[in-house]
Design brief:
74% of the residues lie in helices and 2% in strands. It has a two-stranded antiparallel ribbon with strand order 1-2. A two-stranded antiparallel sheet has the order 3-4.
Length: 495
């Protein structure tokens, strides 16, 4: 009976997530007043997937009560997150919040299947990080000095990256900064600081001298990351900077020069750094070293192939055979047990997030906020591409996580911060639109009390209705001057 339940659940998981993804794209094009039903529909699907996943884990682990306790705690967390965003920031992107919670729900299920203790840790970090990020949209709206703190972002980011160079290696790279019992991956947070730095500097000026200055500092970030063997973050920083550079300057030639310089630098890094050369060689032919350096990518490909369309079923596969499956190869583990249809629907949700971020960026009137939204959106989208592409052998392995889904405290907190910043900017934009509409409504009601007759060539306009306050004042001033001049003429005639 248990096996039958698991077998049926495979199809339920796939179809539910497909329905959710379809609702996400449908909600993006609907009018705001008609989206509430879509949002509620998404929430129902999310909680159904979350419940079904933990019911299976509960049954397969001898009905251990700790799985139910963890489920209820996560359910409360997801519900409260959606509710608080809806109450505190009703003008925020509810669709973005729903997608965030959906991805976390899938991540909780898969991490719990791989390691219960890690799932508990991930959940506690996510809950704590969410409480902190609740304040970010409000701070972004009230503190205007964020756009003028470029050098603070720069110095802080470079200091954190340099500090990591002196730390011990984890999986062949200097990534983790240990502070007592707490381990932090600074690169996850430096990505945000880097975006804020570039946006702040280009908000001041987009001159050639400023562009050269920012480019040099951006190159320093990338070089430090390459030296610390964090190739994934180095690629993200490079691509993000080029996109922000293009948005700020609107000069395609700068992007072309950047890609050319990046290509030359990549070729140089391949020759100079052994770890870069090793990553490329493993990518080209992992099968020749399947018993050593190519083992990880080969196991990832095996897992994806074994998953087929609907997967082997939750907890029925062998994702634990993939080294660090809960981090860099979470996509492979999900594909094996949930299937290719589920995995594609998951990627469509990630793509939906990217589209929403770019849409929000296009609506930002201030250059700083527009650049921040673009930078964070590209950071998120390119990170998803790197982790999925690496797992499927489309590109060399880069060692980055799938946002909100993979295990990692620094990863999920930084992702929460990014989404909070995006929602904060969307909330600000909605406020601007409302103020503009209110102002336009008031202006259209302003009618000059006197009858003004303006002769334009041969036509007359009576009872002129003005929507521009400055124009209204000018005309009133001219009317008053004309009255005074008329009075002066009458007095002169009498004399």
């Amino acid at each position: 009976m248990q096996l039958v339940f698991i077998e049926v659940s495979k199809y339920i998981f796939a179809f539910l997530l497909c329905f959710y993804a379809a609702a996400a794209y449908r909600g993006a094009v609907m009018k705001e007043e008609k989206r509430k039903f879509t949002y509620a529909f998404q929430n129902v699907i999310m909680f159904m997937i979350h419940l079904l996943g933990f019911l299976i884990l509960y049954q397969l682990n001898n009905e251990d009560i700790k799985y139910l306790i963890l489920y209820f705690a996560q359910f409360i967390y997801l519900f409260v997150t959606i509710f608080v965003y809806d109450v505190l920031y009703p003008k925020a992107s509810r669709l973005l919040v729903n997608n965030m919670c959906m991805l976390m729900a899938v991540g909780f299920i898969m991490i719990c299947r791989l390691d219960y203790d890690k799932c508990v840790k991930q959940f506690l970090i996510a809950a704590g990080g969410t409480i902190i990020t609740f304040f970010i949209p409000a701070l972004l709206k009230r503190v205007k000095s964020f756009r003028n703190m470029g050098w603070i972002y720069c110095i802080t980011g470079i200091t954190l990256l340099l500090a990591v160079l002196f730390c011990t290696e984890v999986f062949g790279a200097n990534l983790v900064l240990t502070l007592g019992p707490v381990s932090v991956q600074p690169g996850e947070f430096v990505k945000i600081l880097f975006v804020m730095f570039v946006a702040s500097m280009f908000n001041k000026s987009t001159s050639f001298e400023q562009t050269v200055k920012v480019t040099v500092i951006a190159a320093i970030h990338v070089i430090i990351l390459v030296i610390s063997k964090d190739l994934g973050a180095a690629l993200i920083f490079f691509v993000v900077y080029l996109m922000m550079l293009f948005i700020a300057t609107r000069k395609l030639s700068y992007v072309g020069i950047g890609f050319a310089a990046g290509s030359v630098a990549a070729a140089g890094a391949y020759k100079i750094f052994n770890h870069v050369r090793q990553r490329v060689l493993i990518w080209k032919d992992p099968w020749s070293t399947i018993d050593s350096t190519g083992y990880q990518i080969c196991q990832s490909l095996f897992a994806i192939g074994m998953g087929s369309w609907f997967g082997s079923g939750l907890a029925q596969g062998l994702p634990d055979k993939i080294p660090v499956a809960e981090k860099d190869f979470m996509f492979s583990a999900i594909t094996e047990e949930f299937g290719a249809i589920f995995a594609v629907a998951l990627l469509l949700i990630c793509l939906n997030n990217l589209i929403l971020m770019m849409n929000i960026a296009s609506r930002c009137k201030t250059l700083f906020y527009r650049l921040v939204a673009v930078g964070l959106g590209v950071t998120y989208g390119f990170q998803v591409f790197l982790t999925v592409g690496g797992a499927m052998k489309m590109i060399p392995m880069t060692g980055v996580t799938l946002p909100f889904v993979s295990y990692g405290g620094s990863s999920i907190v930084s992702s929460l911060i990014m989404f909070a910043l995006i929602n904060g900017m969307y909330n600000m934009r909605q406020d601007e639109v409302e103020i503009k509409n209110e102002s336009a409504g008031k202006n259209t009601k302003l009618i000059i009390s006197e009858s003004i007759i303006l002769k334009i060539r041969s036509s007359e306009v009576t009872f002129l209705q003005l929507t521009d306050r400055s124009l209204q004042k000018q005309i009133l001033m001219r009317m008053e001057m004309r009255r005074e001049f008329t009075r002066f003429q009458k007095c002169s005639a009498m004399l």
